[in-house]
Write a structure and sequence with these properties.
mainly alpha; 3-stranded mixed sheet; elongated
Length: about 170
């Protein structure tokens, strides 16, 4: 539907230009504004969320090394997968992925699409498996509630409003 709006806008502005109702700059301003608004309203597919999450995960892994203990990572994955299966969003495109980061920092990250990272430092702070499970459940909640994607969607709306304001100022200013 967004593509249809952009096509209709393109046709209408071309007709408006040819009829002399609007000039070339106004037509381009309308097209640019429509494209920005259309983009801000597009929904992301689960596959797109996954690949956005992979890109964010790559940034995380450029700052932190993965912890090399396969047994610890296997345990975190088993615990995380069990919790994810019991969540309100037990499945995401290509599944949930859990990884321990080799850092003394006390932190955990969840990316769109189900990539969840937890640091060694945070694991050491957990007095029990229940505490670690609560942390992983919290991160699964971020994925389930799409907090990362909501931030991206808000940024798209902000970008669209900025384009509208800029193009409006050009036309009216």
């Amino acid at each position: 539907s967004c593509a249809a709006v952009e096509t209709a806008t393109s046709i209408a502005t071309t007709v408006g230009e040819q009829a002399g109702v609007i000039n070339r700059a106004q037509a381009e301003s309308i097209r640019k504004s429509t494209t920005a608004v259309s983009k801000s309203m597009e929904d992301f597919t689960p596959e797109q969320e996954y690949y956005i999450g992979r890109a964010v995960g790559a940034v995380v892994l450029s700052k932190y090394r993965a912890y090399g203990d396969a047994q610890v990572n296997q345990y975190i994955n088993m615990l995380g997968q069990t919790l994810a299966a019991a969540s309100d969003k037990p499945e995401v495109f290509n599944g949930y992925h859990f990884l321990v980061l080799d850092s003394d920092d006390i932190n955990a990250f969840a990316t769109p699409g189900g990539h969840i990272f937890v640091t060694r430092g945070l694991i050491r702070c957990c007095p029990s498996e229940d505490a670690l499970a609560a942390i992983l459940a919290h991160e699964i909640g971020h994925v389930q509630l799409r907090h990362g994607m909501q931030s991206i969607e808000k940024a798209r709306v902000t970008e669209a409003l900025t384009v509208l304001a800029t193009e409006g100022a050009k036309t009216l200013g």
